[in-house]
Input
Amino acid sequence: MQMRRWTPTLCPGRMALPLLLLAVLGSLVACVGAQSSTGSSLTPTATVAPRFCEPTTNMTAQCSNRGSCSASGAACVCSAPYFGTRCEYGCDGNLQRYPLVNGTRGFLSDGPGLYSANLNCQFELQLPAGNPDGLVISIRVTQMDLECSWDYLFIFDGPSVRSPMVAALTGQLFATHDFVIRSEAALLTFYSDYGYSLSGYNVSYQASSCPFACSDRGYCEAGRCSCPAGWTGEYCELEVCPNDCSGSGTCFAAARTCVCFPGYTGRDCSVDISAGGFSSLATNTTSLANVPNGRVFHSAVLISPMVYIFGGFSTDFTVTARLLRFRVTDQSWSFITPVTGSAPSGRYSHSAFAVGNAMYIYGGIDATKAYLSELWRYDVTGNSWSLVVPTSGTLQQISGHTTTVSGLKAIVLGGYSPFGYVQTVQEYSFDTNTVATFTPTGFAPIRIFGHSAVLDGSGAIFVYGGSSPDNMLGASASADLYAYWVNDRSWSLLTAGPTPSYFHTAILLPGTTTMAVFGGYVYSYQSPPVCFESDTFTYDTACATWNAQPSGFAGGSAIFGGRFGHATVTLNNGALLMFGGYRGWVLSDVVMLSPAICANFSDPNACQENSGCGWCASTLQCVVVSVTPFCPGTSVRPATATTCAVDGCIFAHSCTTCVSTSSSGVRCRWCSDTATCRSASATSSCAMVSDASSCSAVARTTPVPCASRYECSECNNDATCMWSLPYYGGVTKCSARTSSNPVCPLPCSSLTNCGDCLDVDAGACLWCTSSRTCVASKDYVALNAVGQCQQYQSGSGLYCPVDCESRQSCSSCLAGSGCGWCGLDVATGTGRCTSATSASNCSAQAWYFSQCPACECNGHSTCSASGDCLACANRTGGTHCESCLAGYFGNAQNGGSCSQCTMQFHNITCYSCDSTTGACTNCSDYRSGPTCSSCMPGYYESFYTKQCLPCNCNGHSSSCDTVSGQCQSCDYGYMGSTCGECRNGFVGNARNGGLCFFPMSSNTKYQFTVVFQTIYFVYEPIEDGVDLSFSLTLLPLTPALPDVTVDLWGQTGPDPNTDRIYLLRNRRVNSFILSISDRQFDMSNTVFYFHISTNANINFEVSFMQDPPPLNLIHFFLTFFACFCALLLAAFIVWRIRVRFEHNQFVREITLAFEQMSTRPSASITLWDFCQADGARVVHTKTVPLAIEPFRDGKAAVMTFALEVPAKPGAPRQVCLASALISTSEDLVASAQMDGEEDDGEDPEQVKSESRKLGARVRRRFQRFRHRDDRAAPTTEASRDVPAPAGAESIEMSDLPPRTARDTSE
Output
């Protein structure tokens, strides 16, 4: 991750070849050389896209050795988790080294966008060994946006986390900040947890003889910058007298700085502090010998004219015990070494107070993370420390508390102990050397830590802010303001402040009733990542009002800046001094808050509007209120006396006093829910008590709900609550008491290993991997506000990292977070792994954190010049002599020994065995077991040779009986003693490794349960030209993440090498559906095979679906109508056949009837026809009607014939007339004639001719009849006169011949 700076250079031969330059001017824009730490150069042109790299399959330097070049050479293909144009972003948790030489420049960044969660990136900037050129590493943080107190960018002045830490950057950085590393290496680590992710960081670095190469302005000489005119500073970064001192000062040429006029400050004297403001008394630099290292979470007291500072974290984030002294008069520093007595150990988050010529310090946390209860006294006169042991009472282990002196008592409020937040109040009496601990009454804060406490003249200690957990897993800054009434030992809740904060300082401005709050930690999850407060706000204790933007604090953002963990003292002249603090790095500056220059105000009102100023009526001057000799008596009128309307009720802090008090003629009322007194007009929203008789019924202490108690001891100490079930996710464990003997788990701070820390109470504790301490989750931010923890582990004990001490080799040691290798024998590579925080007994020469020593032979060999082990001894082997030889066991790492493995059969070789028991784990000759006495799985022992032979299972089982060799547990689908047969329902040949397949039918779903096996399927499509669908579904009983592998192929011919087409091959799947197109396979000539294997117990459903093609409507309707018509035709034919059959049947029946009738005696008759032939009367056989009587329509007629009556032979012949209804159709008439004449043997054609003639005559006769009927009136058929046809005559019966036998038969 190096930054390459592109600088233009002259092309070779530019002046010598002007014509050539003109020829290529259209395409060549610039000839540039890349000044890079790697020495490589690239020359991009305007006409061709720049090639980032040369195509290769290996990691390339152009891709930061984290990726390979694409085929086109236009981009890098980065390996995970790296990204960026040249794979310059990302980290994999391993240390990344960047060698530096003089002039090397680069950058480090988390990349564009938001950084990832759970990152642990380590970057080492390494100068050449020994640093012969005297180079320094300059680091500039140009941008930073991290989650406050959870995500950090750490910078170490050295190659390991054991090196001095110079910065623990978190939150937002609003201006660039520079760090100069003078060691041979610098280590930068970036850690992010699983929570919020923000935009990250950008850091540039360079190696040069002087810091930042003198900002490219001056030149370096003997490691110091010589700056040009107009510039100054350690590396020429500051402008001399900027803005010409803004007209508010003069430029001091010798010091190259502005000397500001009174009332102005700043580098350019642009900050007007005539009405009060901040000014810097010392620069934040270590180049001046009289400026000590910075401090944070320290303490400071004023014992005039000196300010004494003790403890805290130093600039390198180590806990210090040094006592500093700052002389106010000449602004000089000195270190104090006590002459007699023992001294307190280093500590932070303690409290300090001054009584006379002595400074007291109490409590705090030492370098081992232990909470202290010690009270130490430093005697300024005797320059000695002494431990104060109270004669009565016990001081608590405590940190983050405040100690306020009121009279002869020191009152300790709030704080945090190993058992949680401190709820009680301690009073130490100087005169009796005793300690009293009690629980105050009133509305007490539930828990406060890192708050401020200010005592005013009314006898109240005003307690503001602090860290207070608002759920089980987190704490946030508080804006609550409380008043603790010293004499009554009671609490009251006042109006909340404008900004939640903790680790701030608060001071009562001298001579006023104004409490000013400076700095603090202000981050909350609902706000932007602003960690450090830079604004100042005030509270008027007399008016009970807040002012979020008070006057008199000019230059707060520019000079004081955002910080927390600083210390503040009040000087006798009314000024305030603020020391150190933390802003991502430990500050070492001294900031003064000067009061207004009161003498500049000649108007009484203008005078009194400035804090600290008052009008002296006797001298008519504006004076500093705290300096009383200038205006004796009571002539000073503070500004607060006339500028606010005070509710006098607020000063009554007991119920009985309140209800008997009046303010401005209005009775006061007691608010029992907040334990405060208010006027009747201001008590509408509180539980009001109005008379003294009701005060006795009011609870002295406001009860706290069980659900709001987040400490076990705090919960169980309440008689109504008890600590109950485990919690996680912020759910409280404190609930209504149901047991008489509730028990608390061990506090997090008492747990000393990761497993116990994370498992004692799920989610309640976090394990700090670097400091190896256990911290309560809800207090993590407050207790690690300056990055003491560096990184933490949450969850259960299963997630705990391996302890450093458990790692036996240097390489495994350095892979552990915060682990380092202490070399014991550099020549052979032995040593021990230890945590960097506990490596104080390892010398710097033997300490390895970023890389292992050159020789790593685990104590069994020396090394060559190149670091290779020469000859591994002591039965060891391997590249680093790290393992035992075959047949030996033990731990060869780090000087361990190896012993011979135990075996039963001496002709068997044991390649490896258990490192503890010596039991063989890898035998020769296919044997297994602790003594190599049995055959390994897949083999059985021959009865004759006692050799282990492979099981003969045709490749379908991996185990067999160790004696008989009979196969056991055949694969799914196989059976038999050798697994050489296919199971019922399967097809195939199982011999010699052949396969058995389960034949599948189309459109059928099959369910199987397979346990660590493989099953094969075969399917043959049933339709050609139809797509196929294959589906595999894991059923609900299957484990959540089974390892399932499938193969699917189509076989288009007999050769599996050329005719097999794979659709899936070694594909790890879950559930899926695969469509197979008929265009890809000829379904009529393809067989599909599928196999599934798994290492788990799975239930699955498999199917091949071959759905018919979509419906063709035209084809459908054509087929439908063709079938319908064919059906109709068939029905018609059947109907006709039936009709014909029925007609023939009917005719047959009639014929039979006629035949039966013809057998009757009168079955035959004779018709007579009388015609004239040549004038003679003859009898013809032709049937001629005697008369025709046609109907009107001419279609039918009634014919009259002569009929011979049947009689016995010999009887007289008788003739009668008979009539018949006939049709006038010619054919019917002809048919009637033919029927009558057929027996006479006449010619049918002649008969037909005569019939046609007869029909014509009849039709003519019908026409005459119609014509006549049309002219005449209609008559009935009975009256109609029908003339006889032509040729017909009347027949007399006597003229008939006698009947003969022939006639009768006819």
The first strand starts at residue 5 and ends at 8.
